[in-house]
Design a protein that fits this description.
By secondary structure, the protein is of the alpha+beta class. The protein has 2 domains: about 1-80, Orthogonal Bundle (Arc Repressor Mutant, subunit A); about 85-260, GAF domain (Beta-Lactamase, 2-Layer Sandwich). It contains 9 helices and 9 strands. The radius of gyration is 19 Å and the shape is globular.
Length: about 260
Amino acid sequence: MEEVVSSVAEQVIKPARSGVQSVERAFALLDLIADAGGRATLSELSERADLPMPTIHRLLRTLVGLGCARQMEDRGYALGPALMRLGDLAGRQLGGIVRPYLRSLVHDLEETANIAVLDGDMMVYSAQVPSQHSMRMFTEVGRRVHPSATGVGKAVLPSLKQERIAQIVQSSGMPELTPKTITDYDELLEELDRIRERGYAIDEEEQELGVRCFAVNVPGAPTPMAVSVSGPKSRLDEEFAKRAIPLLQGAAQQISTELN
């Protein structure tokens, strides 16, 4: 997370080349609040943005006035309600962008395909194309799930810095959803190391018994996200994995290109 934050901060203090510097700085502050899980103290923003305190105060006053940020009782700052409408519209557009790739996965693999994004400390399903099987997986779009207990979450977490992973886990917790859910933080870190090495994540009945999911992180996405296929464990066997992983990795790369 430190590298991500410092990168954003560097963008904040650089003169704007083709845009308005104050707008770039304001959006960078919103990014920093989002990176902190949706709320941050003034001292945290000052340290990470590397901006003069009067400048941060001025930008935050403007963002609060617009409803894009709100000041908390503890004098910290959180993302504001005005962003909800923008986020909702952006989420719908994301579904339109990724749905053709999800349809392609369903056509080739005959199992349900999903896209989920990291929202604060939880993963949120943004789009889904269901399988045609009578026995299939269905996850409601908009559903929020724990990153540590899902394929999409475990695919995204390895792309984040250690500090951010710890923050997410501390905030969201690691509830035991099934007897196979990882509930120990050190065990989770070991699992994330394995995912980094092999390039994909597996949900082995950790979210729901009898269900297996394969997921791949979307590299370079504007916001952390992952694409996945899920279904009954009996159908998503080793032979299925050999076909699914390359297709998921290809879809993730195509989605990344589309979004960038």
